[in-house]
């Protein structure tokens, strides 16, 4: 099997599996308990928090462990809206049209609840223009959400530029869904002025059901859950100790590996695209480097249904996906590709190949060979 669906989920790193197993076997007390075993669990969380803080160059008190990026994004969006809702004054929020469902659907819901929201379109590369963000800001704007790397196309958003615009509006929080960026492209939370930053464990060789939200100090936020005082009160509930320790390890490995991963992935991407571009009728939906992260390639074969291509590849042992895993079962044109291309046929035929630095040149050869066979097999059927 050749797995090229790393943006949907990644195989856990062997060190992560080992660490999680050890913690599950040995450190099972409640970290809030006052006995020594509880203290040992608490110590593991403290150390994991420091590992994450060091890897992301933030302060340990800014790290909130969650159950995954969906929760982190919900906490960022609804938690910010709530923090400002105290005096009942109307507020305004800004979000890009290409966000992952775990951000986009929060905004849709806030809109239904009466929040004033501006959706920012993207250009043909899938990128937001910082000037459009600035033009949308109003006196009562409380937050801007723009993701780092798009999970369907790999489009890279100009976060440094957006951060520089937002530095002139200190009351506006800057929220970034960083899930697809960490370990693949550089990120600088401080330098770019990011106030709220979400990550997911299972996209970087960590466990599923683990994530973080970085909340820079003083940034207004209210919790979504109420209970104990865990995670500085932002995320009550007994901590997932093995998950947290495994996640911290995965974040450290991803951050350390980023520069070499980038070089390797750029070369694999170029190799794959060189071959794929010879296939007909191919349309490349991902922008070129440096406007895209190197690990995601999104292509369409207009006239060939993406599900049919994906299943034909699977018969040859190649695993790729249509759209993102979270929306692929809806059988609707991709919202992201529609926002980029306004072309329903292209948006219905997108195929996502998502690589990992563990892929080899031989894997790419196998992948492109399979694509060649499948498109040759399907082309006559198109003409009928
Ligand atoms: N944001 C992006 C960009 C993603 O790709 C995903 C995973 N599909 C998520 C958020 C949600 O992460 P999780 O699966 O940890 O809830």
Automatic annotation (TrEMBL):
Alphabetical UniProt keywords: Iron, Iron-sulfur, Metal-binding, Pyridoxal phosphate
Cited PANTHER family: CYSTEINE DESULFURASE ISCS 2-RELATED (PTHR11601:SF50), CYSTEINE DESULFURYLASE FAMILY MEMBER (PTHR11601)
Species annotation: Paenibacillus profundus
Protein family according to the UniProt entry: Belongs to the class-V pyridoxal-phosphate-dependent aminotransferase family. NifS/IscS subfamily.
UniProt feature coiled coil, ranges: none
Aminotransferase class V domain mapped to chain residues: 3-367
InterPro entries according to UniProt: Aminotrans_V_dom, Aminotrans_V_PyrdxlP_BS, Cysteine_dSase, PyrdxlP-dep_Trfase, PyrdxlP-dep_Trfase_major, PyrdxlP-dep_Trfase_small
Entries under Pfam families matching the protein: Aminotran_5
Cofactor dependence: pyridoxal 5'-phosphate
Protein name, as recorded: Cysteine desulfurase
């Amino acid at each position: 099997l050749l797995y090229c669906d790393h943006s949907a989920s990644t195989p856990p790193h062997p060190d992560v599996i080992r660490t999680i197993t050890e913690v599950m076997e040995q450190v099972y007390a409640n970290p809030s308990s006052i006995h020594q075993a509880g203290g040992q669990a608490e110590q593991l969380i403290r150390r994991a928090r420091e590992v994450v803080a060091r890897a992301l160059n933030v302060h340990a008190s800014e790290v909130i462990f969650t159950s995954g990026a969906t929760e982190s994004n919900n906490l960022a969006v609804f938690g910010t809206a709530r923090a400002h809702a105290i005096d009942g004054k109307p507020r305004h929020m800004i979000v890009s049209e290409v966000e992952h469902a775990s951000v986009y659907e929060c905004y849709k819901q806030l809109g239904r609840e009466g929040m004033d929201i501006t959706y920012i379109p993207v250009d043909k590369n899938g990128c937001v223009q910082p000037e459009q963000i600035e033009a949308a800001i109003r006196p009562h704007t409380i937050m801007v959400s723009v993701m780092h790397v798009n999970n369907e196309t790999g489009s890279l958003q100009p976060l440094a530029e957006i951060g520089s615009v937002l530095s002139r509006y200190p009351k506006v929080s800057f929220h970034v869904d960083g899930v697809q960026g960490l370990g693949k492209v550089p990120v600088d939370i401080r330098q770019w002025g990011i106030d709220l930053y979400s990550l997911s464990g299972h996209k970087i060789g960590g466990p599923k059901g683990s994530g973080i939200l970085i909340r820079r100090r003083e940034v207004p936020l209210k919790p979504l859950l109420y209970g104990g005082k865990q995670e500085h009160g932002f995320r009550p509930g007994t901590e997932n100790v093995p998950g947290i320790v495994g996640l911290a390890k995965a974040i450290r490995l991803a951050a350390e590996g980023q520069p070499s991963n980038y070089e390797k992935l750029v070369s694999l991407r170029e190799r794959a695209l060189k071959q794929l571009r010879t296939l007909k009728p191919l349309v490349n939906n991902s922008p070129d480097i440096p406007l895209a992260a190197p690990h995601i390639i999104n292509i369409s074969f207009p006239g060939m249904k993406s599900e049919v291509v994906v299943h034909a590849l699977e018969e040859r042992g190649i695993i790729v996906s249509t759209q993102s895993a979270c929306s692929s079962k809806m059988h609707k044109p991709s919202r992201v590709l529609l926002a980029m291309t306004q072309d329903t046929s292209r948006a219905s035929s997108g195929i996502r190949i998502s690589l990992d630095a563990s892929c080899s040149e031989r894997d790419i050869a196998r992948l492109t060979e399979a694509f060649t066979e499948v498109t040759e097999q399907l082309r006559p059927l198109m003409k009928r």
